[in-house]
Amino acid sequence: MRTRFLSTLLAVGVVSALAAGCGGGEPPSNDAGGTGNDGLTSNVRLEDEAQPAGSPKSGGRLRIMIRLDANELDPHKMSETSAFVINEQIYESLVQSYRGEIKPAIAESWEQSADGLKVTFKLRDNAYFHSGRKVTAADVKYSIERIQNPETRAPRARSYEGIASVAAPDERTVEMTLSKPNAAILTLLSTAASSIVDKDVAEAGGLNGSVDGGSGPFKLTSRVAGQAIKLDKHDKYWEQGVPYLDGVDFTFNPDDNARAAAIRSGTVDFLWRPAPEFIDALKRDEKLKWYGGSGSLSLHLRLNTSKAPYDNVKVRQAIFLALDRQEILNVANSGFGTALNAGYLPPDRFGALKEPVYGKPDIEKAKALLAEAGFPNGFEAKLMVIATSAFQVRSAEVEQQQLAKIGIKVTIESVESTIADTKTKSADFDMYQSGFGLTYDPDERFTASFLKGGGLNYGGWTDPEYENLVVQARSEMDKDKRAALYQQAEKILAERGPVAMTFLNADFDVVQKDVMGYRGDPTPTYRFYKNIWLDR
């Protein structure tokens, strides 16, 4: 049977997110002056541009400003959100996801066997790499096996462990055999982390330099680390009529004031995720349009369970109980977002806990747990945070004050992103103020971040019961049963996991009035940039 949708899986929990995240408008004001510091985003009014007025125009270059550059642009190795934003313009996957629907990409069609153990993809005949070479089944086989290869050190490799083999019987046919049915397989293969790469480029010089191995709508033309990335239109892109733009120019600036000034002055066309304290003012600027309201970044305080005292579950539980997540949201993100009082997933997402695990801080119970763990007077700790991420620095400062109430004396260590990356991967930290983007399907995040061997499981937390639930959910084809398994896993993560979830941010993009065709998707994906055009 030909498969085109995962409506029973992906769309669950996405519709409500989309209702608060795909357009522009003005939320009603409240006692905090319209900042939404009640932690809710569902009251955002939207004006989607999925069908903008007028006919799209071709030409022009879109200037996008992001806070930080990506350290790693290899799509199979990347972990930073900025890398996903950039790479989704450069690379294509077998299929693509948009607002809960699985659509063709490099594969123009696919069939899944009745037992769910074999998926056969038919590749389109007009997909070309930026090198000019046609994309073949051999490239698909190479790409999936590269992700699975331990030497690649792909952060999400464990999500692909159920793929037993990939065969390429001819240039346009890919046969993927699974060890057991996988409810998340198509969503997994739609992500940028599953990008199909040019084997010749990957093996010649790697995919983190000045040449890319992609087949997406734009190709890498130049790269100055930390400053700018220039992408040009791919003239042999398979989808007729797009991209409309001649190119996309990314610049990077960690200064929140400078970024806001750049969009207001017209220096840039598209400001990606302005700092929360500027959102209200930017919304009132009549020269600009804004989109957003939903969130895609789940913030947390990670504890290194590979070292004492964080290997003691009572210490972790004491920290969980001491935090006031709403206060962290209000101070760190101007109230834009949703306090996470349970697991990683916000309440409106598929598989999420609907009832909170934590409420107001319970300082006395937290102190009692520390005493039971052998720390009646608390202890000293270091909290690492990326210095150029202002809202995360603010999060760390609030957490420092809150943990002091139970005797944990926190010293904040502000470091550069490259240092944070090295220290987390080597488990050289006590606490780390961080965050993970939501993924199309819960399996990708849970597997990479919280299972043994997961590439983003910093500190190496393990819990056999949690792992069994996540692995079991991957093969559960009944969506209600699958959701129940995730809810059980989320309860374990909230009560004895390695992270204290704090809040889900609220994302906003701000563009000039003549930037048209914005078609946002908070699942999240950024592949819609190929549909943007300039009314100039």
Automatic annotation (TrEMBL):
* Taxonomic lineage of the native organism: Bacteria, Bacillati, Actinomycetota, Actinomycetes, Micromonosporales
Main localization of the protein described in the UniProt heading: other
Quote the Pfam families the UniProt record gives.
Answer: SBP_bac_5 (PF00496)
According to the record, the signal peptide region is 1-19
Q: Give a yes or no for keyword DNA damage in this entry.
A: no
Which keywords annotate this record? Signal, Transport
List, for all copies, the residue spans of the domain called Solute-binding protein family: 101-455
Recorded hits in InterPro entries, A to Z, give: Peptide/Ni-bd (IPR030678), SBP_5 (IPR039424), SBP_5_dom (IPR000914)
Q: Where in the cell is it found?
A: Cell envelope
User: Which superkingdom?
Assistant: Bacteria
Membership in a protein family: Belongs to the bacterial solute-binding protein 5 family.
What's the protein name? ABC transporter substrate-binding protein
Q: Can the keyword Signal be found in this entry's annotation? A: yes
Residues of the region (Disordered) are: 25-59
